[in-house]
């Protein structure tokens, strides 16, 4: 062979080597891409790990890949996936155990996977028992190794941050020395991506489980509220009704003092019932279960109804109550019961804050809306307190409502939510010492 | 409350598990001149409703053994609907709109929340339902 032939041969060898490395790099790119895709698909840990194990075996032609994860609850290293092939299926049958049954206690030092996790470093062995101990005997391990054609096993720790989360076992049909530099590099590169993909799947699974738990809790809360409302309301109905019967009895006359006391029992029960009702309303609002049943009705007529309801209370404390309107007011289309509740709430507040004076419910049309304004000549609301008005439980510090302890602080919050469900708006103008006007509008259609 | 309806007296069935409330409605209705019969749980109520002949059934929702919605559904599925009785009205302390809607769909004439009414209001609602069913 002359020099030129030698040079050609050398060039050929170099070219061959470069070609081989290029093909391994191509494989690397292809497997990395596949793993990347796997890591992006949201799925549970088992199926993600299965996809990873299968992808590595298919792309890189290894004998087997097994992924095991640390289970914090059982303190065991548990296999979650093993690559699928006819040989592996046969080997698993021979072993007579399912993946789940190859749990390795995390303090079992004879297993190389545990060493790998402890030292956070790559391990290598030619004996399959080193990664299956104590789940199988040496004899079974040897047989399994023969069936699956495994000569060498490399164990890589899966480390997230500084925390080992498991291992990946790669079984080769050849000796470690027969692995090319490029193949070794590929393997090293894979591990980081495998860790990320598995971790992502774990997070996804945790979130999914947390979500299921939250939904169960939410349902439990709903059930709790409905049961509570029912259980609370039964005795409250009895107290309210029997007290009413005594107060309204035609037989015998109540001692004035006894009547006064019973009247207080009755009012207190009414307050309690009102409070439970408001809590139920809030719970319905917040879980988005409020259903509107729109109908068309005359706002002025509704205002008259509310006026009648409060007439006795108003005159008792020397407060004048009137309904006024401006011109012809068209009908509104809204949930009559909810609007009734809104107006009752505003008038009831006005009465609380207007010991003597005047309360006016004024109905008028403004563009495409019907406006209802409740004006009182009461004590008004200080600037500080104004901020808390529509806030849940936002009870007013400097007002009668807080001093006397009545009211849940939910009323105006509920009003606002109901008005907004109707695509309307609620607002107020107030001056301390002079009075307040609360206005809400409802669209005409 | 004492103006008695013209005979024959109207028959009302109260299906209510709470003893005090059962007694309450019996007292209010009997004083107003109605014939009142009582059922203490869902199964009891179902059997009595099946025999029928009531001008009005006041049916609770949360009941032992069989809930009110299940009773309504049983009648609904069995075909003749609520025929053996002139009207069924829900008298409950559950206020969920979904349950109210379900009860109405299954043939209940109306829905009353116990805690929101005085005896007088309950009676006038009941009279209204009775007059509507003729």
UniProtKB/TrEMBL annotation, chain A:
Keywords: Kinase, Phosphoprotein, Transferase, Two-component regulatory system. GO terms for cellular component: plasma membrane. GO terms for molecular function: histidine phosphotransfer kinase activity; phosphorelay sensor kinase activity. It catalyses: ATP + protein L-histidine = ADP + protein N-phospho-L-histidine. Coiled coil: none annotated. Pfam families: GAF_2, HATPase_c, HisKA. The keyword Transferase applies. Its EC number is 2.7.13.3. It comes from the Bacteria. The keyword Kinase applies. It is an enzyme of class 2 (transferase). Residues 227-445 form the Histidine kinase domain. PROSITE patterns: HIS_KIN (PS50109). This is histidine kinase. It comes from Candidatus Amesbacteria bacterium RIFOXYB1_FULL_44_23. The lineage of its organism: Bacteria, Candidatus Amesiibacteriota.
UniProtKB/TrEMBL annotation, chain B:
InterPro entries: Bact_response_regulator, CheY-like_superfamily, Sig_transdc_resp-reg_receiver. The modification 4-aspartylphosphate is found at residue 60. Residues 11-129 form the Response regulatory domain. It comes from the Bacteria. One of its GO terms (biological process) is phosphorelay signal transduction system. It holds the Pfam family Response_reg. This is Response regulatory domain-containing protein. It comes from Candidatus Amesbacteria bacterium RIFOXYB1_FULL_44_23.
């Amino acid at each position: 062979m002359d020099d030129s032939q030698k040079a050609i041969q050398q060039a050929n060898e170099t070219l061959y080597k470069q070609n081989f490395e290029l093909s391994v790099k191509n494989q690397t790119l292809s497997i990395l891409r596949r793993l990347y895709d796997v890591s992006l698909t949201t799925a549970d840990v088992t199926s993600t790990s299965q996809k990873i194990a299968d992808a590595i075996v298919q792309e890189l032609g290894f004998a087997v890949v097994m992924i095991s994860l640390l289970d914090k609850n059982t303190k065991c290293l548990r296999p979650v996936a093993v690559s699928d092939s006819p040989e592996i299926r046969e080997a698993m049958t021979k072993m007579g155990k399912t993946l789940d049954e190859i749990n390795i206690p995390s303090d079992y030092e004879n297993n190389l996977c545990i060493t790998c996790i402890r030292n956070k470093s790559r391990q290598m062995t030619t004996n399959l028992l080193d990664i299956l101990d104590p789940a199988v005997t040496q004899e079974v391990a040897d047989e399994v190794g023969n069936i699956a054609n495994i000569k060498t096993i490399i164990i890589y720790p899966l480390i997230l941050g500084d925390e080992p989360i498991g291992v990946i076992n790669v079984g080769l049909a050849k000796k470690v020395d027969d692995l090319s530099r490029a193949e070794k590099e590929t393997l090293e590169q894979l591990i980081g991506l495998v860790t990320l993909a598995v971790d992502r799947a774990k997070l996804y699974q945790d979130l999914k489980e947390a979500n299921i738990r939250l939904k169960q809790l939410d349902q439990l809360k709903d059930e709790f509220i409905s049961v509570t409302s029912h259980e609370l309301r039964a005795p409250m109905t009895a107290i309210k009704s029997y007290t009413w019967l005594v107060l309204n009895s035609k037989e015998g006359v109540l001692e004035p003092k006894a009547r006064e006391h019973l009247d207080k029992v009755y009012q207190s029960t009414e307050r309690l019932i009102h409070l439970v009702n408001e809590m139920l309303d809030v719970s319905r609002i917040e879980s988005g279960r409020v259903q509107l049943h729109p109908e068309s009705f005359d706002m002025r007529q509704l205002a008259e109804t509310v006026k009648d309801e409060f007439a006795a209370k108003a005159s008792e404390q020397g407060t004048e109550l009137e309904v006024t309107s401006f011109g012809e007011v068209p009908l509104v289309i809204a949930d009559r019961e909810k609007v009734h509740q809104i107006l009752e709430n505003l008038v009831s507040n006005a009465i609380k804050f207007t010991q003597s004076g005047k309360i006016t419910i004024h109905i008028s049309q403004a563009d495409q809306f019907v406006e209802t304004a409740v004006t009182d000549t009461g004590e008004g609301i200080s600037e500080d307190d104004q901020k808390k008005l529509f806030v849940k439980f936002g009870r007013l510090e400097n007002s009668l409502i807080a001093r006397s302890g009545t009211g849940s602080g939910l009323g105006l919050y509920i009003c606002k939510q109901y008005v907004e469900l109707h695509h309307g708006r609620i607002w107020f103008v107030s001056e301390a010492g002079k009075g307040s006007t609360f206005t809400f509008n409802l669209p005409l259609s | 409350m004492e103006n008695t309806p013209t005979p024959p007296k109207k028959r009302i069935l109260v299906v209510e598990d709470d003893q005090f409330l059962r007694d309450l409605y019996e007292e209010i209705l009997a004083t107003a001149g109605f014939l009142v019969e009582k059922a203490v749980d869902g199964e009891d109520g179902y059997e009595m409703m099946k025999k029928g002949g009531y001008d009005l059934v006041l049916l609770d929702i949360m009941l032992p053994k069989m809930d009110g919605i299940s009773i309504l559904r049983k009648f609904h599925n069995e075909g003749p609907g609520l025929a053996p009785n002139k009207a069924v009205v829900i008298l409950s302390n559950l206020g969920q709109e979904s349950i109210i809607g379900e009860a109405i769909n299954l043939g209940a004439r109306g829905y009353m929340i116990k805690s929101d009414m005085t005896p007088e209001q309950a009676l006038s609602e009941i009279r209204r339902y009775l007059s509507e069913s003729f």
